[in-house]
């Protein structure tokens, strides 16, 4: 009897999976129909812009170990005092608004997967930079190149992630000075979605550009953006030579960068929302202005990553109200400046994919979408304040991204959406379950989660009493087992492999 019931349950699951597969529609990026939520008036936003200009004018930004940057900024009218750069009021804004594009396209290896930054568009990318990975089978451990490739494949397989991301986890089994070759190669070979480049050293950024030239062609690269990269300020009020050098390498090649202050409010900025916003705007403006001096018209994104912190332990905290307010404000400031905006993600301080991870991630993703973020790094997989990339967390987050796709479509006011014919052809007191309108729409009317269990208690118990993380464990393994690598031109593949081999052989391994 139990075997028969088990087989029946398995058939039910298979039929459900088939239906889910049939209605999932992959899109290259999400286009929002909703008006962004504003939390400050025009007067309040203008005040923060004035405060940012005051910081730039009276305090200034340090450009460390960057004589070329100092020379460019001096020629543009900035006051240079050692490595401190003070900007005349409004200079950074004028430089950015004069040449930085409001929107730009990052061309993917598969052109159908190209993404458009700016406007009403939102692009989801996996989490970034974690040295550890976590799954239910092995627990927490250092990431490897195998893990890296697994996450690239999972991002490629998900219809809800538009971007392959960058350092989805650190492959610590490879030398620090050479692992960027393997990471960029994995993005190119295992996915045909857009990807991010290396920024840990200016030469590694230049290597990424060279690899992109092999894949896309030199002339195409000169005319188009095919690489997007994360450039972090060394807050408070410092841009260092590593980040500036990487930014310059990309911008000179017409490739896109997001100039992003990474701020733990209370430590790296004042412990207030308004102070953190003014500092974020000042730092990002200075970085974007520098990029426009290097190459006018190069695509730039205003980035913001701000979290609160525990004043008891000093640890970052996520999903709290204050960073959400920063996110809303910075999105509005980016729109006023006229550049795309990056922030948000499925952020949590939890060590495992539990209830804390769920509510903190939800509390960050909601303002991310409602504020109108254009690029969302850390949209899937983030655990432990970014120290860990989680396999199950990745699947659970991707499911939430699918729900956001459905939400951001807004309300359907078509003839079918209004459903007047259904009312006019259905008697009062008669349910709509068997009505032709319901039968025509039931497959696509509501988002269907592949992870959530909405069956009866008895059915759930019969099928193993699995929680969400256990179900996600099954799903990521299934996705990897069914993964099919996208085609890559044979000549390009061979040239790329030979170039990487030569580069790796040209200098010794190092862990710096």
Summarize the structure.
47% of the residues lie in helices and 13% in strands. With 512 residues, the chain is of the alpha/beta class.
Molecular structure report:
By secondary structure, the protein is an alpha/beta fold. It has a domain at 97-408: TIM Barrel (Alpha-Beta Barrel). The chain contains 19 helices and 20 strands. The chain has helices at 2-23, 42-59, 67-75, 91-99, 145-157, 179-190, 202-216, 218-223, 241-252, 273-294, 321-337, 355-371, 391-408, 415-418, 420-424, 436-441, 457-462, 468-482, 490-505, and strands at 30-31, 61-63, 79-81, 84-86, 104-106, 115-117, 121-124, 132-135, 139-142, 195-196, 227-233, 238-239, 256-264, 300-303, 305-309, 316-317, 341-342, 375-376, 382-383, 388-390. Strands 10, 11, 13, 14, 15, 16 and 17 form a 7-stranded mixed sheet that branches. The chain has a 4-stranded mixed sheet with strand order 3-4-2-12. A 4-stranded mixed sheet has the order 9-8-20-19. Strand 5 (104-106) and strand 6 (115-117) form a beta hairpin. Helix 6 (179-190) packs parallel to helix 7 and helix 12 (355-371) runs parallel beside helix 13. The longest helix has 22 residues, at 2-23. The protein is globular. The N and C termini lie far apart (62 Å). Mean pLDDT is 94; it is low at 1-23.
């Amino acid at each position: 009897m139990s075997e028969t019931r088990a087989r029946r349950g398995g058939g039910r699951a298979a039929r459900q999976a088939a239906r889910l597969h049939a209605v999932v529609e992959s899109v290259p990026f999400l286009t929002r129909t909703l008006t962004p939520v504003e939390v400050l008036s025009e007067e309040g936003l203008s005040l923060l812009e004035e405060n940012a200009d005051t910081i730039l004018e009276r305090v200034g930004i340090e450009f460390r170990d960057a004589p070329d940057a100092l020379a460019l900024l001096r020629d543009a009218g900035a006051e240079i005092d050692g490595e401190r750069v003070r900007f005349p009021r409004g200079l950074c804004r004028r430089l950015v608004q004069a040449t930085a594009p409001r929107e730009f396209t990052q061309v993917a290896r598969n052109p159908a997967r190209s993404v458009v930054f700016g406007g009403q568009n939102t692009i989801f990318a996996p989490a970034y930079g974690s040295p550890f990975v976590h799954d239910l089978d092995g627990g927490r451990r250092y990431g490897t190149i195998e893990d890296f490739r697994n996450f690239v494949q999972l991002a490629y397989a998900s219809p809800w992630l538009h971007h392959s991301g960058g350092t989805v986890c650190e492959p610590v089994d490879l030398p620090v000075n050479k692992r960027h070759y393997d990471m960029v190669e994995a993005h190119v070979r295992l996915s045909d979605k857009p990807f991010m480049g290396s920024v840990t050293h200016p030469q590694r950024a230049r290597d990424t550009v060279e690899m992109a030239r092999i894949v896309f062609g030199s002339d195409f690269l000169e005319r188009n953006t095919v690489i997007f990269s994360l450039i972090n300020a060394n807050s408070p009020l410092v841009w260092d030579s590593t980040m500036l050098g990487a930014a310059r390498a990309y911008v000179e090649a017409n490739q896109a960068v997001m100039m992003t202050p990474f701020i733990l409010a209370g430590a790296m900025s004042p412990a207030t929302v308004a102070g953190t916003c003014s500092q974020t705007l000042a730092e990002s403006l200075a970085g974007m202005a520098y990029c426009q001096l290097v190459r006018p018209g190069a695509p730039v994104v205003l980035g913001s990553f701000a979290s609160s912190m525990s004043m008891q332990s000093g640890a970052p905290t996520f999903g709290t109200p204050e960073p959400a307010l920063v996110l809303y404000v910075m999105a509005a400031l980016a729109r006023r400046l006229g550049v795309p905006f990056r922030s948000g993600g499925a952020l949590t301080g939890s060590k495992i994919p539990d209830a804390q991870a769920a509510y903190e991630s939800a509390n960050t993703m909601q303002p991310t979408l409602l504020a109108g973020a254009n690029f969302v790094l850390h949209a899937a997989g983030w655990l432990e304040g970014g120290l860990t990339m989680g396999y199950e967390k990745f699947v659970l987050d991707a499911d939430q991204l699918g729900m956001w796709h459905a939400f951001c479509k807004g309300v359907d006011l078509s003839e079918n959406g209004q459903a007047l014919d259904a009312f006019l052809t259905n008697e009062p007191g008669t349910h709509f379950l068997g009505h032709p309108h319901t039968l025509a729409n039931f497959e696509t009317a509501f988002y269907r989660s592949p992870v959530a269990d909405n069956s009866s208690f008895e059915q759930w118990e019969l099928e193993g009493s699995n929680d969400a993380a256990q179900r996600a464990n099954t799903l990521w393994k299934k996705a990897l087992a069914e993964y099919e690598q996208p085609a890559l031109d044979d000549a390009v593949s061979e040239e790329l492999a030979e170039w990487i081999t030569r580069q790796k052989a040209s200098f010794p391994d190092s862990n710096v």
